[in-house]
Specification:
Blueprint (H helix, E strand, L loop, with lengths): L1 E4 L2 E4 L2 H16 L20 E2 L8 E7 L16 H13 L10 E6 L5 E5 L4 E6 L4 E5 L1 E3 L2 E2 L3 E6 L5 E5 L4 E5 L5 E5 L7 E7 L4 E6 L4 E5 L5 E5 L12 E7 L2 E6 L4 E5 L5 E5 L12 E6 L5 E5 L4 E5 L5 E6 L14 E3 L4 E6 L4 E7 L7
Antiparallel strand pairs: 1-2, 3-4, 4-29, 5-6, 6-7, 7-8, 9-10, 11-12, 12-13, 13-14, 15-16, 16-17, 17-18, 19-20, 20-21, 21-22, 23-24, 24-25, 25-26, 27-28, 28-29
Length: 368
């Protein structure tokens, strides 16, 4: 297509032609209609997939997948109504950016008592907040005034409404207030490569996995180092590249990743028991990463290498595997983190599928 204007001739590319047409359509049709948004539910829809399958008792059901802003849109709705959104859509045509904000590489997260979901996204280098009640997404990128996150890995609540975030490249723990604003940091010069983080709610001790130094460092809430748990090795209480952590029912759970196991420690750091071994069978651990504890003290472990969520009882006996490689509901592609909430939901950061998969516990461990 060629447009002539006085003595000048302009040749337009097909992409620019599309943009021009879109802009003219917006001008002549108006842009005042507001989008129809919905509050997404995490509860399983009728007829949802269950695990295990019949005739066995269904113990888990598929709830939904969280991917980004589209989670707040009604089916079939397009958010190209307002002028600002329209311009963003046009910019997306030109520059190739997605029309909606989406997760890219979610690695871990947590859910607070309000039901807000906080997802650490390694590709966005940010905390992505799904504000379920207000139907919006917030993105927290700042580790300090004038400094962005570089490699955020895990997040924990600080017990006072704020959050603690590990950044493996900054080698520090970043403090955020309830609005995601940086208010402090600790661990500089002490941590080498912090990854997992969790907090003992009784004693307010913060545990941080230092993957490079093969130990767990314990800090007070004011950032003072108070203990170092473990050292390199294979014996109980020693570690080989530990990653994710969780604290539940007076016990510290550690994904001892390159020892291919989970270790369970008491408050003093003494080993209580361990489970897991490397192998090629479902239930073995080749790259255990995310770890969480749910209803009935069942233990969830993400086996990243073989793309499984493994469910164990409180003593470390395998109850059920969920997953396998794929993109359909209940399958994963290099999953990373897992966490639970008080309503029986289990969240899996399905990293290379760019989503968080939500399951619902349907039974107790005993099947009642």
């Amino acid at each position: 297509m060629i447009i002539r204007a006085r003595h000048f001739v302009y040749k337009l590319s097909p992409r620019i032609m599309v943009v021009a047409a879109a802009f003219l359509a917006l001008v002549f049709t108006g842009c005042s209609v507001s989008p129809n948004t919905i509050v997404p539910t995490l509860e399983p829809p009728l007829g949802s997939i269950t695990w295990p399958q019949a005739p066995d008792i269904a113990r888990y059901s598929f709830g939904r997948m969280l991917v980004g802003e589209k989670d707040f849109l009604a089916p079939g709705e397009e958010r190209r109504q307002g002028l600002g959104n329209a311009l963003r859509w046009i910019a997306g045509l030109v520059f190739g950016e997605p029309e909606y904000f989406e997760l890219r590489r979610p690695v871990s997260g947590l859910t607070d008592n309000r039901g807000w979901i906080y997802v650490v996204d390694a590709s966005h280098k940010a905390i992505v907040v799904f504000n379920m009640a207000e139907r919006r997404i917030d993105v927290w990128r700042n580790a300090a005034v004038g400094q962005l996150f570089v490699s955020p890995v895990a997040i924990a609540e600080d017990g006072s409404g704020g959050f603690l975030v590990t950044d493996s490249e900054l080698a520090e723990v970043i403090r955020l207030n309830k609005n995601g604003e940086p208010v402090g940091r600790f661990g500089k010069g002490v941590l080498a490569r912090p990854t997992g983080i969790t907090r003992d709610p009784r004693d307010n001790v913060v545990y941080v996995a230092d993957t490079r130094e093969h130990n767990i460092k314990a800090f007070s809430l004011d950032g003072k180092l108070i203990d170092v748990l473990g050292s390199p090795g294979k014996e109980m209480g020693r570690f080989n590249s530990p990653t994710y952590l969780t604290f539940r029912e007076n016990q510290l759970y550690v994904a001892d990743t390159l020892n291919f196991r989970v270790q369970v420690l008491n408050r003093g750091g003494d080993g209580r028991f361990e489970f897991g071994q490397t192998g090629l069978f479902v239930g073995n651990m080749t790259r255990p990463k995310g770890i969480a504890v749910g209803g009935g003290s069942r233990i969830y472990v993400v086996e990243s290498y073989f793309d499984y969520l493994l469910v164990f009882d409180q003593g470390g006996e395998l109850l059920l595997p969920i997953g396998g490689t794929g993109a359909e509901p209940g399958r994963f592609y290099l999953p990373s983190g897992v966490w639970t909430d008080k309503l029986g939901h289990v969240f899996v950061a399905d990293m290379f599928n760019g989503r968080v998969v939500v399951f619902k516990e349907l039974t107790t461990v005993q099947g009642g």
